[in-house]
């Protein structure tokens, strides 16, 4: 009886793909960034929190004051007003900058040459510091020598900084002029990442550009929109140099936002304990608002289609 041996199946060794495989970096790569964050963010925040319970004039040794700084803030009407003004200017900034950024970002995502040139010109304010921008607009809006003085038919007496409503409007306008290009750049990159096959399928179904924008572009920009709004909230609550140069908190205290009031308490009144308490309040408010935006929008439950390295 003859037996036939079964053919041996050669086992192939697994091919090691170095180019296509996704290799996650080790924890060591995160150590420099972690140390930088701990030294320049967490440690100063802890020191500010400790200083908010102390009395310090910046010269003598700090003295423990308990809850005195916090009791003073609770009964300080300027502090309460500054918080409402900070929230108001932040909300107005989000309302103005978000639609402009989305429309300009989607438009700038095109590949035509004229769009690239105009986008490069439009992004020029990103190269300027907030101080330079504030000085520029302070000169342009000067009630004696600026544009309002030459166009009183439009600006009335020309003193835009003499009334609370117009002064707040100037702060919102200058902030939007400088920071809208930044958020436009974010939306431009996000719009270019949207798969073109979605628009091609919509064109086959007969959808025009308006319907494509509402039913494809905006839903695809949802994650980017939440990120941009959080950045606007944090930036709006910490605005300082624009108020310092343009209005100096005036007229009176009508534009004294919390960040500027913190500067007045700490560096003008030499009450660094009270200024630290205001700073801690701003951190808490910005954190709470950001968490609320993340929770309400469902951003914490969103997942990307691909994983990063």
UniProtKB/TrEMBL annotation:
The terms describing its cellular component in GO are:
plasma membrane
Protein keywords = Cell membrane, Membrane, Transmembrane, Transmembrane helix, Transport
Species: Actinacidiphila alni
Where are its TM segments located? 21-54, 83-108, 120-140, 160-179, 225-246, 272-294
Q: What PROSITE patterns does the entry give? A: ABC_TM1
ABC transmembrane type-1 domain segment(s)? 83-293
Q: How does it sit in the membrane?
A: Multi-pass membrane protein
Some GO term, biological process aspect, for this entry: which one?
transmembrane transport
Which InterPro entries does the protein's record reference? ABC_transporter_permease, MetI-like, MetI-like_sf
Where, per UniProt, does this protein localize?
Cell membrane
**Protein's name according to its UniProt entry:** Xylobiose ABC transporter membrane protein
In terms of Pfam families, this protein maps to: BPD_transp_1
Family of the protein in this entry: Belongs to the binding-protein-dependent transport system permease family.
């Amino acid at each position: 009886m003859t037996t036939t041996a079964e053919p041996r199946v050669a086992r192939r060794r697994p091919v090691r793909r170095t180019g296509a495989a996704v290799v996650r970096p080790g924890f060591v790569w995160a150590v420099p960034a972690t140390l930088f964050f701990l030294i320049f963010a967490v440690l100063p925040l802890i020191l500010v929190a400790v200083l908010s319970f102390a009395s310090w004039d910046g010269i003598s040794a700090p003295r423990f004051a308990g809850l005195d700084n916090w009791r003073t803030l609770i009964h300080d009407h300027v502090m309460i007003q500054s918080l409402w003004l900070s929230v108001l200017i932040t909300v107005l900034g989000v309302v103005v900058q978000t639609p402009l950024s989305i429309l300009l970002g989607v438009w700038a995502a095109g590949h035509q040459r004229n769009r690239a040139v105009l986008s490069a010109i439009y992004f020029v304010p990103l190269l300027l510091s907030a101080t330079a921008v504030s000085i520029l607009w302070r000169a342009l809006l000067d009630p004696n020598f600026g544009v309002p003085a030459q166009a009183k038919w439009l600006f009335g007496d020309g003193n835009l900084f003499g009334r609370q409503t117009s002064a707040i409007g100037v702060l919102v306008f200058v902030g939007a002029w400088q920071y809208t290009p930044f958020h436009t750049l974010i939306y431009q990159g996000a719009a270019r990442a949207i798969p073109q096959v979605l628009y091609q399928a919509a064109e086959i179904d007969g959808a025009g550009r308006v319907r494509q924008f509402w039913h494809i572009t905006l839903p695809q920009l949802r994650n980017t929109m939440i990120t941009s709004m959080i950045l606007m909230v944090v930036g709006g609550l910490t605005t300082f140099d624009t108020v310092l140069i343009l209005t100096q908190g005036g007229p009176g205290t009508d534009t004294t936002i919390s960040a500027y009031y913190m500067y007045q308490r700490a560096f003008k009144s030499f009450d660094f304990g009270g200024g630290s308490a205001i700073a801690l309040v701003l951190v808490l408010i910005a954190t709470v608002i950001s968490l609320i935006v993340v929770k309400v929008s469902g951003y914490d439950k969103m997942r990307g289609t691909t994983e990063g390295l």
